[in-house]
Amino acid sequence: MSTTQPFDISTPGVGVYSEVGRLRSVLVAAPGLAHTRLTPDTSKDLLFDEVLWVERARSDHADFRRLMQDRGIEVLELHEMLTEVVADDVARDWILDRRITAEEVGLGLMDPTREWLTSLPAARLADHLIGGVSYVELPDEFGGEFLRVLRDGLRDQHEWILPPLPNTLFMRDNTSWIYGGVTLNPMYWPARRPETLLTAAIYRFHPRFVGERFSVWLGDLDEPGGTGSRSSSGATLEGGDVMPIGNGTVLVGMGERTSHQAITLLASNLFAHGAAEQVIIAGLPSLRSAMHLDTVFTFCDAETATAFGPIVDNIVPLILRPSTSPSGLAISRPDGTFVEVVGRALGVDLRVVNTGGDIYGMHREQWDDGNNVVALEPGVVIGYDRNVGTNEMLRQAGIEVLEISASELGRGRGGGRCMTCPIARDAL
User: Fold this and answer.
1) Domain spanning 81-162: which CATH class is it, in words?
2) CA 28 to each of CA 65, 147, 206: distance values in angstroms, whole numbers, following the listed order
3) Of 85, 418, 423, 428, which residue is the catalytic one?
């Protein structure tokens, strides 16, 4: 297949055709109201290891965005785009129809919650769609007697009518652009599933995307699946596991967050539309420190990747290709290591820069996202400043490392790649 992007590179367009070609457009989500909800008591359920100093995290995230903008990259921000979307009545109602349901907020509070949210200015509505709504926030004049009586029986009045979505900070995961299309990801943890609905609404209604032509490889842009906490499908997919590396190949990690059911559905759709020739599956352990493929392995240029050896050296690679079998898929276990298999797919001798430090330091730096860098163009990546050893090894290998502060953003366990959803990236 051709990996030449089908859009004029003088304008952003949409489509991601490699991991390290020049980044043209990217979607991020700044820390906000959802992160002020993180406490020692709530953070575990919201999938954060620590609470953030939100003001500093916002400042550091703004620096991150400016760093990309200074390189000529279009940086789109979730709250800003969602504010524009919900200013339109049709788009607002489309979201609320799918988010404010009896199953999610309860019959007694469904109508009052929707009425209150509808009454808010667009920016504040966007705040609460991302940041959640607690029982004490819904005004009495909307909740009425039902809310007042219900509060008497609540063990904790600060529990959620609508839970916050602090993991939107990691925009990589809820949708994934693969060549000329996108996946609307059914995510593993219930706490994250509603994120997909908000991003899908942006793709469906925002002027930046209206009029763009792209395919949907997984999910439905009219009715994005996996957005509610009650989804029990075994087909789960998260963008940290997805890498369209070019040359007709997609890498997908298979571990805690991404299942073989979703991978085979994705592969089948890509093959049916001639969008890919093979999918390389990376079998991962179910570890918090290796929740996605990109927590242990990312690309830095056309022939260089950074990797955490203790896990990457033990990845079992599998290859899916189209076939005439009833499933339409053929699966094989290729010869060689994961790195060798990926290198062959790209036609290069893939060089690996390992995590820096001694036996203790390398584990610390991997935990602190030393291998989770995002490429802005071949040979230029953004990483966290605290990963001194890994950053120095990358520089010795000829990679330009632009550093951002990890003091607060790093508390969420996600680096530069986790915090970015590329919308448009050149082929190599």
Assistant:
1) mainly alpha
2) 8, 35, 15
3) 418
Residue 12 has pLDDT above 70, yes or no: no
Q: Quick one: 15-77+166-425 is in which CATH superfamily?
A: L-arginine/glycine Amidinotransferase; Chain A (3.75.10.10)
Length of the chain: 428
CB 414 within 8 A of CB 369: yes
Domain ranges for the chain: 15-77+166-425, 81-162
Q: What is the pLDDT of residues 57-80, one digit of tens each?
A: 999 999 999 999 999 999 999 999
Q: How far is CA 151 from CA 29, 99, 101, 136, in A?
A: 32, 22, 20, 8
CB neighbours of 184 closer than 8 A, spacing ≥ 6? 174, 175, 196, 199, 200, 216, 218, 219, 220, 221, 224, 225, 226
Residues in Cβ contact with 377 at an 8 Å cutoff, skipping those fewer than 6 apart: 20, 21, 22, 23, 71
What is residue 202's three-state secondary structure? helix
Q: Looking at residue 76, what is its pLDDT?
A: 98
**pLDDT single digits (tens) 195-208:** 999 999 999 999 99
418 is known as an active-site residue: yes
Average pLDDT, the chain: 91
382 Cβ contact partners less than 8 Å away, ≥ 6 residues apart: 64, 67, 68, 373, 374, 376, 401, 402, 403, 404, 416
